Amino acid sequence: MRARSSLNRVALRPSYLAREQARREARERPFPPPIPLLCPAEKALRDAVVAAPEADKLRLVYADWLERNGEPGRAQFIRIQLQLEHCADEAEAESLHEREREFLRKHGASWQAELEPWGVKDGRFRRGFVEEVTLTGRAFVSLSDGLFALAPIRRVRLIAVAPFMDEVARVPQLTHLAALDLADNQIGDAGLKALLSSEHLHELTELNLRGNWLAPESIGRFGACPLLAHLTHLDVSDNPIGPDSVSHLITPSALPSLRWVKLNGARLTDLGVERLAKAPVIASWRGLRLAGNDIGPDGIRALAVSPYPEGLTALHLRFNPIGPDGARALSASSALRSLHELDIGYTGLGDAGAEVLARWAVLSSLRDCSLAGNNIGDPGATALAGGSAFACLRRLDLTSNRIGDAGALALLRSPHLGQLRELVLTSNFVSDLGVQALCAAPRLAGLRSLSLAWNRLGDVGACALAGSAAVANLRSLDLCGNDIGLRGARALASSPHLSSLRRLVLSENPRLWDSAIAPLRERFGRALIVDSDYK
After folding, report:
1. 106: number of Cβ within 10 Å
2. What angle do CA 430, 431, 434 make, to 5 degrees?
3. What is the torsional sign of CA 472, 417, 304, 292?
4. Are the CB atoms for 187 and 161 separated by under 8 Å?
């Protein structure tokens, strides 16, 4: 009867439907919740932090007030995060991070609960306060006034924002932001045009526009926006930019402060890289990501012979058909001597390419290298171990290769890898016998993180690791996807050498039943990750 009466009202008065739609939209529209009540002293201190988000002293003053007024844990957390911002000592930073994680585990949800009514999806703390949030486009437009009065928010990720880009551009709280993330919103050229017409972007230093259906001509709009003069980080990955639009990014007057550029999956091809390599402006760039752009040896050769990339500290070339010829061209470069991070995973290097890279003399400053998915076997791994190019390497990722016991052993016996702290051998062919040999290798004791996931380990390998004093410094051990059972689990649980572990992954071991997991859970607690943790 109710439905029939509603239909009768619509038939007699067509405006009834319009009014119902308006009422429905009003109910769904977020209204600003009330501002949390604070005592005058705390409100004044909080307002001071919000007004001057870069001033650490104001945060310390607030921490002192919290400690005097019954919140010592919150005060200590603020001080810990402020210490982390300036901590250069690795051991001290690790200890601070551990304390930070413990505070967040216990109190993180309650400390940011006051922001939940304002539509905050994922708040992240920095320097003691929530500085990074995720919001819907509707919430950002409707609730920014109150939200930005509660916390010194500097970084915002917007989702479901495409229909609201005109309104977003007019929100004055954009002036508070150092970073704006609009990734995967399909805002298109119209959305980008609306954003760049905003009068409130002058503090922005980071802009993420990945996956937004931006046409090649859209890139030209950056040069027409003088408010982006301070932009240092730009991500336009996964947009069909093409080689011709690269010229808009390398015009000297377009984005003068740009330092970190992501162009992954931008359809650049060799031609686009050749144009980048000829641009003097890239001499000021510090990071360049070019993954998945169909770049071959010719593009790598153009980059290698260019004198301009000498300031690059990070170069990502993953998922490009470079091959051994590209590796040879790359290793001939003398301009890339400042690299700290190099990712050339899934580029078809093979053993020949690995041998070439091992002889690259200018890589003395390299700290992080990914060679994942390159069909590197024991000969290639042995060549890497014997090359002095990796003397300062801290992290080496060799995921999804075909390295066996001999190659893994060569790496951990290398006289050149004394600085190595993280070794990733996921999805290779290391066996129990190999692990037994690794436990006697001199470099194992220096590692803080080791991944042997998806290899050929069983109980013998797990027992060898558990009984080796060389694993005493490990903070993370990944043994996922092997064949470890009850015997191996008991050995790990009773090991006197694994007291430093903060993460032990044993998921996808089919013989690891509940009876085997129980002693592990008792020993490692939250550090243990097994199949049931994913359910």
Report:
1. 12
2. 80
3. negative
4. yes
Q: Which helix (H) or strand (E) holds 465?
A: helix 459-466
pLDDT band with cut points at 50, 70 and 90 for residue 7: very low
The conformational region for residue 177 under phi > 0 = left, psi -120 to 50 = alpha, else beta, is beta
Please report, as a single letter, which amino acid is at residue 310.
Answer: E
**From CA 446, how far away is CA 336, in angstroms rounded?**
28
Contact between 490 and 521 (Cβ < 8 Å): no
User: Does 139 score more than 60 pLDDT?
Assistant: yes
- Residue at token pair 């301070």: 230
Domain boundaries, the chain: 1-30, 36-160, 430-535
Residues 59, 64, 68, 71, CA torsion sign? positive
Output the pLDDT for position 361: 77
**C-alpha 76, offset from chain centre:** 27
Contacts of 418 (CB under 8 A, 6+ apart): 391, 443, 446
In 168-324, beta strands by DSSP E = 179-181, 206-208, 233-235, 260-262, 287-289, 314-316
Q: How far apart are CA 471 and CA 385, in angstroms?
A: 20
Confidence class for position 19, pLDDT limits 50, 70, 90: low
Q: What is the mean pLDDT of residues 327-331?
A: 93
Q: How far apart are CA 31 and CA 57, in angstroms?
A: 34
Q: What is the DSSP letter of 431?
A: B
Can you tell me the distance from the alpha carbon of 149 to that of 117, in angstroms, rounded to the nearest whole number? 14
Burial bucket for residue 109 (CB in 10 Å: 0-12, 13-18, 19+): exposed
CA distance 129 to 120: 14
Angle, vertex CA 233, rays to CA 422 and CA 166, nearest 5: 130
DSSP letter, residue 264: T
Q: How far apart are CA 84 and CA 260, in angstroms?
A: 23
Q: Which of 333, 384, 343, 401 is nearest to 367 (CA)?
A: 343
473 to each of 244, 447, 450, how far by Cα in Å? 51, 7, 11
> Which tens digits make up the pLDDT trace of 308-317?
999 999 999 9
Which CATH number is 430-535's, of 3.40.50.150, 3.80.10.10, 2.70.70.10, 2.60.40.10? 3.80.10.10
pTM confidence score: 0.89
Q: Per residue, what are the HEC states of 364-423?
A: HHCCEEECCCCCCCHHHHHHHHHCHHHCCCCEEECCCCCCCHHHHHHHHCCCCCCCCCEE
